[in-house]
Amino acid sequence: MTQDELFKKLVAHSKEYGFIFPSSEIYDGLSAVYDYGQMGVELKNNIKKYWWDSMVKLHDNIVGIDAAIFMHPRTWEASGHVSAFNDPLIDNRDSKKRYRADVLLEEWLAKQDEKIEKEVAKARKRFGDSFDETQYRNTSPRVLETAAKRDEIHRRMVQAMNDNDLNELRQLILDCEIVCPISGTRNWTEVRQFNLMFETKIGSVSEGASTIYLRPETAQGIFVNFLNVQKTGRMKIPFGIAQIGKAFRNEIVARQFIFRMREFEQMEMQFFVRPGEEMKWWNKWKETRMSWHRALGFGDDNYRFHDHEKLAHYANAATDIEFNFPFGFKEVEGIHSRTDFDLGNHQKFSGRKIQYFDPETGESYVPYVVETSIGVDRMVLQVLSAAYREEKLDNGEDRVVLAIPAPLAPVKAAILPLVKKDGLPEMGHRIKDMLKYDYNVQYDEKDSIGKRYRRQDAIGTPFCITVDHQSLEDDTVTVRQRDTMEQQRVAISELPALIEQAVGLRRLFDKII
Length: 513
Ligand code: GAP
Fold this sequence. Notes:
The protein has about 525 residues and is an alpha+beta fold. It contains 18 helices and 23 strands. The chain is globular, with a radius of gyration of 27 Å.
């Protein structure tokens, strides 16, 4: 199965089992907007809890807030989003399709990397055991030529993005002979900047109504509350403010399911530090956040850092944590050193003094900020892509299983009476009643036990608890583990401890640096 096929199956599976639906589907959906179904919302809530507790519960010096989506419009002038939150767009005159110029170029660069890898793979096959890969990469004329061309285009692109040179971006697209995937032509328009913020009106639509924006990041709600939280919480630098909430961006190139959406959710933490100490904290948060991801057990090799070449208007250092999705390594989280840009500008635009008096140094200053910013929806996609498996069983049957880490699984246990009579359903309900206050559990008595196991595998339930006739005699049940399908006989009284050991977030927290 190719990665493309795998991804299509994942999208279909997410819909079939109640994780993710296209928004307003009965009206044919709304592009790049999705709804979470009964399973999706549980998974999403568990991810949010994993993040929130790892920030707010595990750190004495991090507190949470929940700011409004609507903010005073001056906020977005101060933050630089009105003037600089743009994507460079280009249209193909024949297909009338619109693309992000930088994305077209990045795809071209990725193709050159693929070309090089194909050459190396071919040579490896040809030379067998005697193959010296480093030497081949350093001497093969074909590899060297492609690499040199790639590096030169890459250099020009970074320069053009940093200089905001739209003519050069267009020239690069022409020089690389990039064609529109729909029309196949190179009939490109000029490159134009397009602001990503959604506008709406507040107040009556007649006179007096003013234009406001749907926030494109949650971070600004934290910055404008810096003084409120610092003073009322008596917070001492270094300290952090965490928030989970919706953000909105009018993405033009909206693709890859919930990877790039127009309405999405962010989990952001702004960490306020002394000026000059930001790099130390940036490095510290890079490691902590990477270990948060790796604790999920999807394989350390499936993550990497990717340092930004073009820094956002507010940053002096930035890196992404990328995950190996079925469509390649892509950003899940950003860790940005935002200097004093935001607080400094809010001070200027609002006319209020936004400073911190440091009792240790006796100085007042505008704190510097290190931010960790992760998309909830991208985390959902990460978990689903890493968890989706198709297996052939010893008895020849197929099963689709979501090997979701147990603490994040939407349903923790399913209680399944072997038959619908002889008092087994009643006992099943008693077990459910015992567990339901602490865990999301399901009771299911419909269809054969095999079919019921398959249904639970498909939504990622770690435990299936089967009640049989022996249960009536000795108060034991069979517990089947999702991943190994192994079964063990367990006393009903031991079920809560068994489940807790696997599904408690503690298991993940212990692995975070
Ligand atoms: N406050 C900084 C900030 O917003 P960003 O890199 O633009 O930085 C942070 O976004 C994270 O938000 C990304 O790493 C990604 O996980 C998520 N994100 C951004 N745009 C998104 C979109 N259109 N759809 C889904 N998630 C998105």
